[in-house]
Amino acid sequence: MAERGRAAGAGVHDCLTRVTISVTPVISVASLKDARAITALRVQVARGMTRDFGEGHWSALPTLASVKRQIRASHVLVARQDDDIIGTVRLVVAQRLAIDSESFSPVRTALYVFGLAVAPEARKQGVGRALMDAAKEKTRSWPAQALWLDAYEHRAGAGSFYLACGFRKVGPSAKAEVPVIFYEWLVD
Q1: What pTM did the predictor assign?
Q2: For 58, phi and psi rounded to 5 degrees?
Q3: Which of 40, 56, 68, 95 makes the best surface tag, with the fewest CB within 10 Å?
Q4: Statement: residue 42 has pLDDT above 60
């Protein structure tokens, strides 16, 4: 029987919204047919970050054309739950002359992480960690000796997440237009 003044089932709905469901995503390499869903996810994440942290470098919205170029030119991983893409990350061979690489360990080949994005409803459920674990596996099989990335030196940055994923902080960028902190993970 419903409580007076409340609709039947209202209490059940309230409890359900507080339940966190653990997600075990399937990680795979993106194809061009995934470009539209990846674009939509990255737009959603950029808009959410802008809402939460204000305008910033993270506010840039990707286009379908730019995502297709990235899929063709780099190694894009996606996390799927059922038929939905709930996360993505992009890996490229690091070009020492193109980045402020002085802080990183000297290695023959490193992969650079770009654009980690997880759907808001899938956050805090292991999706980002699963993508970073897959990025580490790709680094081992490339073969590369390191995975490098940067995180904003701002409350919008994900530095603590990367530390929890086994990366180590190697220093701030001296040259970036947007203040960032560099992180690396070395293959054992």
Answers
A1: 0.83
A2: -70, -10
A3: 95
A4: yes
